Structures are given as C-alpha cells and as structure tokens.
C-alpha cells in the first residue's frame, strides 16, 4: 500500500517539474525576444529612413520649397535619426499601451492628453487607431480563409498519404499543384469574371461599409466573402495539404506504427492517434508561422476585391511615404512572427513528449 501511494506523488511532482520547465523555457524565450525585437525595430526604422521617400513628394509642384521645408520640420524630419527612433520607441512601447488601457478599460496612468502618439503623416490620425479600424475586415476575410484552408488541407493530406497513388491522391495532387502554382491575383480575376460578371452570383467589390444588422445584410456579407475567402483558402490548403501528405508518409512505415498494428490496434486508431500526432509537428510550424500573415493581410487579394484591410492600408502607406504607419505595421508583423514562433515551439512538446525544454 505504501508503494502504491508513492507512485501518484512521484507523478504529481514530475508533472509540476515539467510544467515549471516549460514556464522557464517560455520566460527565457520572451527575454531573448526583447533584444531581438529592438534590433528588428531599429533595422526597419533605418531602412525606411534611408529609403528615397519624401512625404512632400506628392504635393503639387507649385508648393514653394520653404513651405515644403516647414512641413518636414512639422513632421520632425529635421531631427537626427536616433532621436526620432527614440521618440517612436517611447510612443509605441509606453504611450500607446497606456492609451489603450485608458480607452478600453478606463485605467488612467498619467495625463492622457499630454501623451504624444504615433501619427500618420498622410491623415494625421493615430496609427494604432487606423490599424484597429482595418483589422476586423482582414480577420473576416484572410482569417477565415486560413482557417478553412487548414480544415481542408489536413483531411486531404491524411487520405492522400494513406491511399497513396489512388485516384483521390492523384486528383488531390493535381489540384494542390494548380492551387499553389497559380497566383492569387489570377484566380481572383478569373473568379470575378466567372461568378460576378457572367453568372452574377456574387458582388465584384467587397463592401466594407456593410453593417450586419439584419438577415438580408448577413446574406449579403456572406456572398461578398465567398470569392476572396475561397481564393485564399485554395492557396493555403494547397500548400498545407502537401506538407501534411509528406509528413504522414514519413511516419507510416516507422517501427512504432508496425508495433501498434501488431498489438491489434485498428487502422483508424493507428492513423488518427499515433501517426497523426507525430506528423503534425512540421505542419504546426508552417501553420503557426503563417498566422501572422493573417494580420498582414493578403495584399494582392485585398486589392483585387477592394477589401479595406491591413494589406491595402500598407500599400497606401508605402505609396504615400507614410513612414510612421509603415514602421508600425511592419514591426507589428515582426512581433507576431516572434510570438507565434514561440507558440509553435511550445506546441512541439504537447505533440511529442520526447521533446524536452531543459
């Protein structure tokens, strides 16, 4: 009885030790991410500062040079780069989070009216507010397409690998190669020509001002989302399904699979429990690193369907030499990449207990 009572305790302390190891690993990675992100932000700022872009370049030629110079001074371009970079860091890491706390939760720290914010040179609006306004449209279109792409790709990859060289595998391979090889701007235009111009099933342009407050508007919202979501989902599913198929094939003939079959496990259990869990490890990396692209928006697809998302916002900022907006958007994407890379590494240990974080 004493021996039986010791085992659960040992398992309990081993679990606590394992959880503490994971927590320590996450803390180490987060501490390492701080200098990494600071270096990335400086590189982005330096590249944009050295780029031959002038915010006054879009002004009419009749504007006198002294007026252009006053505009540059009002934007702070008369100051050295390191001073402007330091101000941007204070605004991004201190002022903007405090402003979000004040507006979202009513928590006031300091004087909110005296805090300087990152302003767009083109619109003179706070950059964070512009990003928040555009994010829902991007998540609705690009986020749903990525989710649907994953839901389609994983089953297709599993069946294609298990029934290798069958008609299903051949069709899946052909569709995947076409979907991954043909660019989205081509499939988007073809979809518009067929389903909008000829058949008139779906609207050609995405209406970002549509408010879903009735069943009729809900149906209209679904209709205008079908084409951009389908185009992006096909592209994402084509890539993920090939990775899923290749990963399943690598594990199907390994020793642990033969051992599970020798123990009398059914093919469903062997495939969906043993093989799938190990095969998801490389696919999880691809999925996790692809999630930041959701927030980045599908720049080309958003331009084709006129989706007023983050991708279109980035294009407008680049064309207008709006350095604060481009700087903040690109750094925001870099933060997401580092964050989801960490999430992918932690997910490895969940899928494969052999991976240790010591």
Describe the secondary structure blueprint for this structure:
Blueprint: H1 2-50, H2 65-74, H3 81-105, H4 127-162, H5 167-181, H6 184-198, H7 215-252, H8 255-262, H9 267-296, H10 299-305, H11 310-319, H12 323-351
Helix pairs in contact: 1-12, 4-5, 4-7, 4-9, 5-7, 6-7, 6-10, 7-9, 8-9, 9-12, 10-11, 11-12
Description:
- There is one protein chain.
- By secondary structure, the chain is an all-alpha fold.
- The protein folds into two domains: 64-117, no CATH class; 125-351, MetI-like fold (Orthogonal Bundle).
- It contains twelve helices and no strands.
- It has helices at residues 2-50, 65-74, 81-105, 127-162, 167-181, 184-198, 215-252, 255-262, 267-296, 299-305, 310-319, 323-351.
- Helix 10 packs across helix 11 (310-319).
- The longest helix is centred in the first third of the chain and has 49 residues, at 2-50.
What descriptive keywords fit this protein?
single chain; 358 residues; mainly alpha; MetI-like fold; 76% helix; disordered N terminus
What ranges have pLDDT less than 50 throughout 5 or more consecutive residues? Answer: 1-9
Multimeric organization: single chain
- Helices and strands, in N-to-C order? HHHHHHHHHHHH
Q: Strand portion, in percent?
A: under 5%
Please work out how many helical segments DSSP would assign: 12
Radius of gyration, CA atoms, in whole angstroms:
26 Å
Q: Which fold name corresponds to the CATH topology of the largest domain?
A: MetI-like fold
CATH class of the largest domain: Mainly Alpha
End-to-end Cα distance, whole Å, is 34 Å
Strand-pairing-aware structural class: mainly alpha
- The CATH superfamily label of the largest domain reads MetI-like
Q: Which CATH architecture of the largest domain?
A: Orthogonal Bundle
Shape: globular
Overall average pLDDT = 77
In this structure, how is the largest beta sheet organized? none
